[in-house]
Each structure stands twice: as C-alpha cells, then as structure tokens.
Design the sequence.
C-alpha cells in the first residue's frame, strides 16, 4: 500500500489566446480530453483557466469519467476573465497507465478565447455537438477530434512522495511532439512531464493584434503563471527563436517592426531575469535548451543565424543553468550544422519532424534520467 501524501501535477498545458477566427463562440458543445496517468494515486484535482478571456465562461457540467467535479461544492464552474480555478479534490483512484477522460459541457454561448494548440502522440481531444459530458462514448456522427485544449489547464494527483514534475517551457516546438515523446520515454519513472508551451511566443515581446494574438503572451507575463505546477523540481527552457526570426520591418508586415529585434545580450538578460531567477527562487533546477536550425526558413539570413549561434553558445556555457540540453546538436546535420539532419526537418525548415522530436526527447531524458529512478514494480492500493 502506497503512502499518497503529495500533490503532483501529472498533466498540464499552457493557456493562451486562441486563433482569432470568424467564429469565436460555442454553444451546446461537449469537450472531452483523454489523459494517460503517469502515476498511481488516490485523489485528483483539476485546474481550469480563462486566463486570456475577456468574458465570463461557464462550464455547466464537468466530469472525470462518470464522476462529477465540484468547485466549492458547486457542480458548475464560472470563470471570470483572467481567472483560473481549481476543483475540489475528488476521490478517484488511478493506476499508472490508466487513461482518464475529462469531459465538460458548454451550455450557453461561450467565448472560446482561452486555449492552446498542442500536438503529439499523447495529445488528442474531442468535441461533440450536444450534451454528452456523462456519456460513455461521443456519438460518431456528431463529434470530431481536436488538438485545441480549451480551459483545461492542469491535473494533479495525490500520489507517493518520491514522484515529481518536470516542466517543458517554450513555443511551437515545445507545443508539438517532444514533450509527449519524453513522457513516453519517462513512463514508469517518478517524473511527470508538464508542457507549458504556446506557438509563436517570444521572450521579450507579444502581439496585441487579432492577426497574431494566438502567438501568445510575452515571457514576463506568462512565466509566473506557468510556474504554478505542483511537485515541480525541474524546468527545461527552450525559447527564443521567435524573437530572432519574427521581425521583418513594417514595409513587409505592419505588425513586425525591426524595433522588435533584440540583441543577443537582451535575450540573455531576459532569460536570466524573467525565467532563471524566478525559477531558482522557487527551488527549481533550470535546464537550458538550445535553439534548433533555421537554415531555409523564409526569414533566414546570416545575421539571424549568427544570433542563434551566439545565443546557443551562451545557453551551453552560462553558469546560471544547472545544465544544457543540446537540442541543436541532437537534430542538426553533421555536414551542414546550420540545417536539420536528413529526415529531421518537417519541411518548413523551422519545425522538426517526428523522428527529430523523438531525438529531442531522448536528449532531454539522457540529461535528466539521474533524477528519475525507475520502479521495479507497480504500486498497489
């Protein structure tokens, strides 16, 4: 019998501004998210977020499996703009490897402004027209899958004391597959992999126009919120490429002035002041992650490449970090280090292929494995 005495995040994503399209409201909609349990435990709690909303959002019903969740004893949850709320803890025994299903029903017109697009082998949700929050299965003819995670932000499990969480912080590269592959490779250890990533985000800047709002909040705004991870011991920071590649001048794009282009020194200072110091103050080990190749990307030039190389050298050598995960070395070409290795480019010369994401996950596991002793047997209850 395990001693479940510690709350640890077992799943998590960031909450950001959704892509601003013609339709921004939902009504009479069920959302369902399957989540694989990395730990065994006896109780669960769930955090929901309307961080980037501008209107109140009401989740009329919220379930884990067939068990209703409550919030201060109430079965529905209303989130005011900018607000995050945690459910009451619910007795819900889980074993490592179980899949739980989190379902909630949006009855009235609901602003779908708070959510994040994430992909990977463990990241797939569903939506259905109608109220199916309590149904065993969603009706095939009324449902589709989605990689947008609306409102659901973090799941914690009451588990044994040796378990802990590792935060993966970044932009679209981290919003894509490598944290899922890392979670698969870490499965059976005492570590949960918690993704805090938003596509398009930068360390020092953010967009406030609807064209690029989905590129999310700047580091100083989002980082303190995303550090809210129960049981966290480590954070991997792989962030900064968008600061380098986005600015093109207002003659090309009115929202991307050259004044947004930082110096390498400004990026280094930003990482230290915005990320490393607060994380260290919380007692976290901080791991830098080098920036990946961009050769062939549409805004590539030699000046941007030089910035990337200089920033990566600092990430590899600065004593402010507990260590460096050299993602760049894991995916770059041996013969042309500015580019991805063969088979490691998704095709856009910025984002890796699935094979490359697996290599990134392996590099991260290799660095952190000494903090993750493997179990010889499953826990029992």
Sequence:
């Amino acid at each position: 019998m395990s001693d479940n005495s510690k709350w640890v995040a077992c799943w998590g994503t960031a909450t950001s501004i959704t892509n601003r399209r013609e339709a921004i409201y939902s009504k009479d909609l069920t959302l369902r998210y399957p989540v694989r349990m990395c730990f065994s435990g006896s109780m669960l709690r769930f955090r929901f977020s309307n961080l980037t909303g501008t209107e109140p959002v009401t989740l009329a019903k919220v379930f884990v499996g067939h068990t209703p969740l409550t919030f201060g004893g109430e079965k529905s949850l209303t989130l005011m703009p900018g607000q995050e709320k945690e459910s009451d803890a619910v007795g819900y025994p889980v074993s490592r490897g179980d899949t739980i299903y989190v379902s909630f029903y949006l009855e009235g017109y609901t602003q779908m402004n708070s959510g994040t697009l994430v992909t990977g082998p463990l990241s797939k949700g569903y939506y259905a027209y109608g109220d199916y929050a309590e149904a065993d299965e969603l009706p095939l003819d009324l449902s589709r899958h989605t990689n947008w995670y609306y409102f659901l932000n973090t799941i914690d499990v009451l588990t044994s004391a040796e378990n802990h969480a590792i935060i993966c912080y970044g932009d679209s590269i981290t919003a894509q597959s490598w944290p899922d592959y890392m979670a698969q490779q870490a499965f059976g250890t005492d570590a949960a992999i918690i993704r805090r990533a938003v596509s398009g985000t930068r360390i020092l800047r953010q967009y406030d126009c609807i064209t690029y709002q989905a590129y999310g909040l700047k580091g100083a705004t989002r980082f303190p919120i995303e550090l809210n991870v129960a049981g966290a011991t480590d954070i991997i920071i792989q962030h900064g490429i968008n600061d380098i590649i986005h600015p093109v001048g207002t003659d090309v794009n009115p929202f991307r002035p050259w004044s947004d282009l930082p110096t390498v020194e400004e990026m280094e200072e930003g990482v230290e002041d915005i990320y490393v110091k607060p994380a260290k103050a919380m007692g976290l080990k901080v791991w830098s992650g080098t920036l990946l190749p961009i050769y062939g990307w549409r805004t590539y030039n030699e000046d941007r490449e030089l910035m990337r190389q200089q920033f990566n050298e600092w990430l590899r050598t600065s004593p402010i970090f507990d260590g460096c995960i050299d993602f760049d070395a894991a995916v770059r070409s041996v013969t042309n280090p500015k580019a991805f290795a063969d088979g490691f480019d998704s095709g856009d010369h910025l984002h890796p292929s699935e094979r490359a994401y697996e290599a990134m996950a392996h590099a991260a596991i290799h660095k952190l494995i000494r903090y993750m002793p493997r179990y010889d047997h499953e826990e029992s209850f």
Remarks:
- Confidence is low (pLDDT under 50) at residues 371-381.
- The first helix runs from residue 172 to 175.
- The CA atoms of residues 158 and 303 lie 49 Å apart.
- The chain is about 20% helix and 30% strand.
